[in-house]
Structures are given as structure tokens and as C-alpha cells.
Amino acid sequence: MCENVNIYFKCKGRMYTLMMKTSGENITLSMLVGRICTKLELDESKVKLQLRYNAVLLGSTEEIYICDDEDVGVYISSGENNRRYVLYVEVITPPELPEQLSRVEVINKSSAGKNYEDEMRDNAAIVLCECEEQGTEPKEAIVEVDDTQDAEIGSQDESMDIHDDRGDEYVEPPPVVEAGQFKKEWEDGIGLNLFQEFPSRAALQEVVDKGAFANSFGYVIKKSDKERYLLTCAKESCAWRIRASNIQNTSIYSIRKYNKMHTCTRISKSKTRMRKRKGTPELVAALLHDTFPGQMETPVPKVIMELVQTKLGVKISYSTALRGKRQAICDLKVVPDTPELVFMSDRNSSLIKGIRNVYFAAHHGYCIWHLSQNVKGHATNVNRDVVAWRFMELSRVYTMAEFEREYRTFKLRYPSAANYLEDTTVKEKWARCCFRGQRYNLDTSNCVESLNSVFLNARKYSLIPMLDAIISKISVWFNEHRKEAASGSNENKLVPLVENYLHDLWVEAEKLKVTELNTFQLEYNVRGSEGKEYFVNLLLKTCSCKVFDIQKYPCVHALAGFIAFENDTTRTRSMEIHELVSKYYWAEMWALAYYRTIYLVPDKSQWDIPDDIKALKLMNDTHVFKWVDEALVNEVEQLDFQVSVLEEEVALLKMGRKKETKEITKMMVPFIVGCFLTIVLVTWYN
């Protein structure tokens, strides 16, 4: 189907044309109605369009009506070469509401505290004047009286004046009763501006949610698609609305229409709509950012529940408050909290606790080198270096079947080391095939140890000079890696590590036997060099050997499947080798990782500190050294752990020495007895 879709429609006896600059499957009913209203210069909120067409080629004389997105898809796909049936558009205007009549007072009369009918004479007619608009001043009421009673009334008045000799009596004027008026227009309190931009549709909705809760009004999403986002008041007759449009080829939404005034009253909202007012974690996080700006430490969930109730008038659950608290912490992080994030550590207890409190979704793995040193310390009567090597090989196994087989062998040969592993760790933290995150080919924290050795002298400095030394070194590294990433050829789509790996693997992959199982799903069966059969799916980027799944770049079997795909002359699609590799191994991502410059901190004499920052004072001076104290505690705990390991090794050596001494003693007793008997026999024989 072509990119642009041409539509011809007829309205009120006139033909019109539309060009939809998108593919046919992306056109929805709301999008089509919106474009037609724009073409006809109609207000979409005040009219309703009825769309129909006559499919004459089907041999039917009945008209087909378009009621939903599925009908639109059928209509769009019914034409060939951009020739479609003429669309007939009928504009339906809903009947206007009858004007409301205002109740007005009668001239110089009041109904306060009395029966209104008692104030009027018999046969008197009250004519109420219509108010042109709600809230305007009413005209005076006209009172018409029957002329036949004028004489009688006049005579009664004269007789009253003749017999009344009490003089003039003061009569209190009746109270003035103003005409009842409804609440005038009121502002939503959100404070948006035309052409204001938001990074995403969710960001805009978060701002509207916050204003809606704070000012107690409801809204509904009228339209939400890839091009526009329309919000209206929950009361249909209210004029409040927000319309935002998507900026092409971005996720940014810009405010195009905004009426901030509500013409309804809060009490007019339906009870069903009010019951649906629920707080979300994003709303809680936004409130915490406003109440505690820039702070990682926020109140406990119970206090947050009361805070949301007080500020926004909404009740939330404990779990919502907890998730909102975590979301607020995540928003302040430089590194986002995602399941793709993995931390590798040497099992330091304080570090594990800190990661769990700050990065909830991230995964945590153990450095297998540090763990291997602990494992070999608990092995007895064997070569401990061999035990450490066996453990590291066990941790790098890719498939669960092979891991279970190798782990049983490890337990039989080194039972004490296996007992230590089962008592202090879990397999999901150190076994590559059991790890729940994406750790790629990283098993150790060697990069951290390398940093420790580079900053060995800097770690002896005080805090500020140490940070300056670290920033200076990282700035140099960034510049070197930036030049290295830019020096590669544009033809190389992958980083040198993966590019060279696949280059060396290509020779072996070409020699493997490949059987195509599913042409459309790109599924292959590959026989390995050892004679085993492996299943490869190039679309899902998987292989039954699990190397492709874990390392995120093709194994030898997947590469053989790709070579077979390239050699297929009947294929209907194309694929590049870098599409089978994780984006983090692309040369483009490598260059983006170092494109920013790391600047050094200038001298203190050049600092320009704002007055509001100077006026800030620390509430607790000990808080400044909190992280430093924790780092020192971690270092002490690590040293204590190493000392305990050495003490265990010494104790094991002593026990081994005693056992060896006892065994030598047991062996010497028969030897000495034998020598003694030999001497006695020789002496007796002589």
C-alpha cells in the first residue's frame, strides 16, 4: 500500500478531496472525522458526522455505514491504485438546549416569609421575562390587573383614608431579594500555555492529573492516538478542554488549544465519576517532588497517605504510596532503575543493602572471582587452586542441563566447598545460566579492581581532592575512547570486540550443516562440529546452546543460520548481521557513550555561587560525612572478612597437620615393631 491515501467525499452536494499522509492501516475513525471537520471548517465537538458509501462493484445497492476503525480499514482497503468509492458525509447538529427561565421578583413585592399567592390580588397575572443568559440581570416583572375591579378597589382605599385618623404610620420596606445566580466560570489551576511542550503524552497527563486532583474536577480522554490528545471535562456541557498534537517523528506533545475555564460546578459531577478518582504512583511521586524537592529520603508510606489526602483530597492505598515513594527516588537518580541494570559486587553486606534500597528493579550478581577465593578456602584435602578453577568453570556454563550435571560432579568431588555455597549463596546470583538479569559475558568486578589500583594514591587524599583526581582521570579516558570510536570505518557497524569475534567464527560457521525449518519465522536446525543438533531462531535471536541468548551476539550456530539465510536466493526480506546483535554492541552506541565532554572543576576563586545557595545551611553536620563513614565501615568489614578467612585457613592447616602426624605415627608403629622383631630373629638365629 502506498504511503499517501487519497479519499474523495461528498458533503451537501459538493465534492472534496483529502490526502492522508500515512499508511492505510494507521488511519482510524477519529483521525478521519477530524480531517473531514478541518476540511469543512466545522467544530468537531459540536457536530456529528455520519459516513457511508455505496460498494457498487460488489453488486449491492445498499449503502454501507462506517461506525468504527474496522469499517475504516475495510473502506481503505477496498480501493486499488488509490481509487476508492466516494464517501458520503452527512453533518448532524444536535438540538440546542432550551433556554432557562429565571425567576424574578415582582415590583416592590417580596415573598420572603409569606405565601407568594397572598401578595397578589385575584385575577392578577404575573409575566416573567426571559433572561438572555445565565447570570445576567433580569428585567422587571409586569403585573396586569383586571380593569373591572379598579373602581371597587379605589372606593375601598378612599373609605380607609376617611376613617383612619391615626396619622401616618411607619412601614418597614420589604427586603430586597436578588435574583439567584449560579457559580460563574472558574479556573482549573493547571496553568498551561499555548504551544507549551511536554516530553511525552504521559508527562502531560501527569500534570493534568495533579491539577484535577488539587482542584477537584474530573476529565475524560476524548481522543488519544499517534497524532493528537484531546481532554474534556467530565461534564459534557462544560467548555473546559485541552488539545495537544504530536510533533512529527518525536514523542513530544505540544498544546494547541486550551480553555482553562470551567463552566460547570463541582457538585454537578456524577457520583460514578467521583468514585473513579484514584491516585497513582506517578501522582504521588510528583507531589513528593514538590513537597521535598531534591531529597532522596522521604516520609514513610503511612505519612505519604495522609499527605496525599491533605494536599489532593484523594485516598490512596499503602502499596500506591510505597510505589510512589520509590518512583520519586528513581526520578532523582542519574542512572535510571530498570531491569536491564545489573550490579556486580563482592557480596559486601552494606553494598547489597544500599542497592536494594535505591535500585528496586535492578538485578544483583556476585563476582565469581571473589566467590571462588572463598570457596577454595572451605575445600579440604584437595588442591584449592583446582577447586577455585573448577568453580569458575561451573559458573560459566550456559545451559541448565549441563549445569545440573556439572554441579552434581562438583558436589561429589568437593563436598565441603559445595556445602559452603549452598549455605551462604543462591545459584541465581553466581551461575550464568540461572541469572535472571542480562549480565552478558561479565562475571567479575575486575573493572572496579582496576579502578582501585589506578586511584590507589588518590584514595589517600581528603574527599574534595580525591574527587578532583577521579574526574581528571575519567575526562582523559573519555577523550581517548571518543577518538577511538570515531576512528573506525562507517562500514563497521559493530564494536571491534564483536566484529573480530564474528570474523574469526565465520570460517567454522560456513562448514556447518544447516536445515531450514520455517522460512517465514527464520527457524533453522544446525548440526554442530561435535555432531549435536541445535535449534536457531533468527527472529527471536535465540539458540538452544544459549550462548546467543546470554551474550547477545550470534554464536557459531546462529552465524551458520545467517549464512544460510544470505545464500537463499528466494528470500523476500533482507537482514544485516548487526541486526542480530544487541544495540549496546553497535559502533553507533559506542560513540554515543563518549560524545559528551567531562569538564574539570574550576578553581574556587572562579566559582559564582548564587545567594540562595549561600544562604542554605546544613541541618545536621554529621550527614555530610555519612557516605564517607559508610565507606570506611565497608572497608573495615571487608578487612575483617579477609582476616576471618585467613584464620579459617590457618585452623584448617593445623587440623591437617595433626591428622598427618597421627597417620605418620600409626604407620611408624608397625615399622618399628617389624624392625625390632627382625633384630630379635637375626640375633636368635646367629
TrEMBL record:
Protein's UniProt keywords contain Glycoprotein: no
The Swiss-Prot or TrEMBL record annotates one GO molecular function as: zinc ion binding
Keywords, in A-Z order: Membrane, Metal-binding, Transmembrane, Transmembrane helix, Zinc, Zinc-finger
SMART domains in the record: ZnF_PMZ
- The chain positions of domain SWIM-type read 534-566
What stretches pass through the bilayer?
664-685
- State the superkingdom: Eukaryota
**Record-linked PANTHER family:** MUDR FAMILY TRANSPOSASE, POLYPROTEIN, PUTATIVE-RELATED
Q: What is this protein called?
A: SWIM-type domain-containing protein
